[in-house]
Amino acid sequence: MEALHAATIQVLTQQGLARCTTTRIAARAGASVGSLYQYYPNRDALLAAVLARKLSGVSAAVDLACRAQQGQPIAQMAVALTRAFLAAKLHNPDESKALYAVAAQRGGAALIAQAQASMVVSIATMLASAADVHVANPAVTAEVALNTLVGSVRALLEGLMSPEVAATLETQLGALLTAYFQTHAVARAAASALARE
Amino acid sequence: MEALHAATIQVLTQQGLARCTTTRIAARAGASVGSLYQYYPNRDALLAAVLARKLSGVSAAVDLACRAQQGQPIAQMAVALTRAFLAAKLHNPDESKALYAVAAQRGGAALIAQAQASMVVSIATMLASAADVHVANPAVTAEVALNTLVGSVRALLEGLMSPEVAATLETQLGALLTAYFQTHAVARAAASALARE
Amino acid sequence: MEALHAATIQVLTQQGLARCTTTRIAARAGASVGSLYQYYPNRDALLAAVLARKLSGVSAAVDLACRAQQGQPIAQMAVALTRAFLAAKLHNPDESKALYAVAAQRGGAALIAQAQASMVVSIATMLASAADVHVANPAVTAEVALNTLVGSVRALLEGLMSPEVAATLETQLGALLTAYFQTHAVARAAASALARE
Amino acid sequence: MEALHAATIQVLTQQGLARCTTTRIAARAGASVGSLYQYYPNRDALLAAVLARKLSGVSAAVDLACRAQQGQPIAQMAVALTRAFLAAKLHNPDESKALYAVAAQRGGAALIAQAQASMVVSIATMLASAADVHVANPAVTAEVALNTLVGSVRALLEGLMSPEVAATLETQLGALLTAYFQTHAVARAAASALARE
DNA sequence: CATGAATGAGTCTTCATTCAT
DNA sequence: GATGAATGAAGACTCATTCAT
């Protein structure tokens, strides 16, 4: 039920994972515990479903952004990817943060892995289409880039980031990824030349 | 007690945070619950102590490496920092992974924040001393770099990293940071020239 | 739940406050601990509720008796008050005795204070209406009288009273209060005379 | 040991009976738990000893006062008894209050009973020697009087007494007892006349 | 004799899950 | 299908008591 999803996120953000009990979720959703168990076999399944939905939303947003950048210059890709990822994760920071706690539970890792894999494919595909450079190993580059973005987002969500960095995060990460992408890339012209040899 | 520290890490890695109860820790340590409470006022304090010890170890390792790189070229700094951080975190991967769960607990964030701050200072100081380039804003650069390293390490520890990336992680991150550091830097010669004008 | 009230009193009388645990109460009530906590937020709340019910019963009985004595001679008031209070407290001696232990707990004092205050008002109002005498300070006199009654009842309940006294308690206390009330009173006629001067 | 007595009372008054643990008592006394158990077989024995000492002090004070009033008029006896009892109980109110909690424990009732019996004898003996009146049944009268005093003292210690009453307690109780004693008494002259008939 | 670390039974309290209505 | 009272296992924590040093 939709109400259960929303209620779970509310309880999660307002009370934390430890106090996110089935009774509280049901009460917040205006339903009974019994009803909750008609939609989900147990508490973990509900939490997993909520996490999965959030993750697929982020994946979709990243995928959309990557498709839109097909054939663009690599620097623009870096900026667009950063912007899309930050927007998806920071649109509702409390929710994102709360769900990281859920992800740490047994079973959460698999969902995260799936979402990451999907995003890596999207990013790698985008990188391979760059107009100006040829990325040697798009999958590897995409994965490292994604981990970098995730690292900063977690730091921000967990309150570990200084105001200075937080204020310019998008710029910093855009620059970082641009520099990184170019390190692993070979200019198209040179690549063509190489191929001709 | 030392046995309690070890037991906590064992239970944490083998059973997870949720099943890491005072009873189980005590049993694993070959002690009684009562004894546990003679050394720590409550469960959270024990977990915090274990986390704090690990974090200070990592901080110290990073600090040591940064001091050793004073005055070196920036590319070498990037590689040395990466190597030191990965070595410290991956020396005992199970322990590191288990403690990430603890860090998410109430109180864990403060310890992490403290350790991060300490490492940012070490890294920033090192960057400021680079022989070849002048880093514009060492503190910000250091913080972004640290978050990047953390992001990859978490991905690795949580099993989210592909074998391809894992195999070349140190190289990848070294290159990434080198590129990033140079983005934010101005060649010493140019900087001196600017200063003279 | 009614069964929890009854069970609490039974455990209290048979095992004492120290052994009056939530588990034992629940078992005696034929319920589970969980059920207990669906009716009361914690152990103290249950004990307080049991005490409060008893106290309000005593208060009500005293109030009823006092109202019935409005306008009667003071000696009759003393006897009626004594009779009503003893009847209320000694109707179920085990329960009364057990609850004195509860009253000593944190939070019990407030309930007792409230009940005492209510009874003092009832008694004072009665005293002020005495047909034959004018009580100078009804509130003070009522309070001292109540403490006197309580003192004897506690002695009786705690087994500190000799059989001789116990056998004639009502008579003794009636006489004591009659004598005390008259000490603090002025005959109506004299009072009127004084007022006319 | 003397220090243990003092420490017990301090912990009792400052932390309450529930937090009056053997460890805390020993620490307060500057001793070890082990030492405590060399003087007392268990916690209850220590508490009982502390209570017993306090009670015998009160008994002795009352006895002393009663002996001093031998052969005096009954009104003076009432006042002296009241004064002595209040002084003994209210000299250290916190201690007295804390010990009432101890008295409610298993075993405390017997000690109280013993002290009460002793005081009843002292008071009865005094009453029998009154110069002006002949008390019909000194033991019964003494017991009722004592319970009355105890009732007010408990009310005062437990904070149940209004400031108005507390301010004039000694006067009120003196008057009450005087009135009560005279109710149960026959003037010496009349008594002698009766005896001659 | 003194010490105080170790013990572990016993408390209160929570919460996922069930099932009679 | 919905409900929510009942369950009871499990967790954190306390403390009287013991005993090796």
UniProtKB/TrEMBL annotation, chains A, B, C, D:
Residues 1-58 form the HTH tetR-type domain. Keywords: DNA-binding, Transcription, Transcription regulation. Coiled coil: none annotated. It holds the Pfam family TetR_C_15. Residues 21-40 bind DNA. SUPFAM superfamilies: Homeodomain-like (SSF46689). GO terms for molecular function: DNA-binding transcription factor activity; transcription cis-regulatory region binding. This is Transcriptional regulator, TetR family. It comes from Orrella dioscoreae.
